[in-house]
TrEMBL record:
This is PhnO protein. Residues 5-158 form the N-acetyltransferase domain. InterPro entries: Acyl_CoA_acyltransferase (IPR016181), GNAT_dom (IPR000182). SUPFAM superfamilies: Acyl-CoA N-acyltransferases (Nat) (SSF55729). Gene3D superfamilies: 3.40.630.30. Pfam families: Acetyltransf_9 (PF13527). One of its GO terms (molecular function) is acyltransferase activity, transferring groups other than amino-acyl groups. Signal peptide: none annotated. It comes from Altererythrobacter epoxidivorans.
């Protein structure tokens, strides 16, 4: 069983090294990076996994993003990922444990209102089967870069609160407050 700790307890350079190992040096060109550009991951929802020797083997980050509808209104979301595990430990349950920890933290954020919808880019079969993500509500959503619409997934208790169309991007509270 992996040991999970807050990602904020891990030096930033170690996180970057792990992400490079998991995704390669071209990772910054991915669409997900464009969606969350200019934001910082959320410390209370992001975690690291350590192996039995207390070595960093995985991370998950949660980011504040928004879906901007055709009228220019921002609808806040939480972007899940990257979920990164070093190659020699992939398939050992670290990624799943990290996902469970973050989703449990998101679901437990507020008892007064439902959690913000979560979005990710990933395998629909895996993330649907284990975590309840689906592409049913994201068909009219666009990304600031290339993406496969079938891999743009959302998790929420009520898809009716989501716009049918919009552009994903960083959450800009100042813009949202002025509308």
């Amino acid at each position: 069983m992996p040991s999970l700790i807050p990602l904020a307890n891990v030096p930033p350079e170690m996180i970057e090294q792990l992400l490079d190992r998991a995704f390669g040096p071209g990772r910054h060109a991915r669409t997900a990076y464009r969606i969350r550009e200019g934001t910082d991951w959320l410390p209370g929802l992001s975690f690291a996994a350590l192996d039995d020797d207390e070595m960093l083997v995985g991370t998950i980050q949660i980011w504040p993003v928004a879906l901007t509808d055709p009228q220019g209104r921002q609808h806040p979301l939480l972007m899940v990922g990257p979920v990164a595990v070093v190659p020699e430990h992939q398939g050992e349950g670290y990624g799943k444990a990290l996902m469970i920890a973050s989703l449990d933290a998101i679901d437990g954020m507020s008892s007064e209102q439902p959690a913000l919808p979560q979005v990710l880019i990933g395998d629909p079969d895996y993330y649907g089967r284990f975590f309840g993500f689906h592409a049913d509500a994201t068909g009219g959503w666009h990304c600031p870069g290339p993406n496969d619409p079938a891999r743009l997934l959302v998790r929420t208790k009520n898809t009716a609160v989501l716009p049918q169309e919009g552009m994903l991007g960083p959450w800009m509270p100042a813009i949202a407050e002025n509308r």
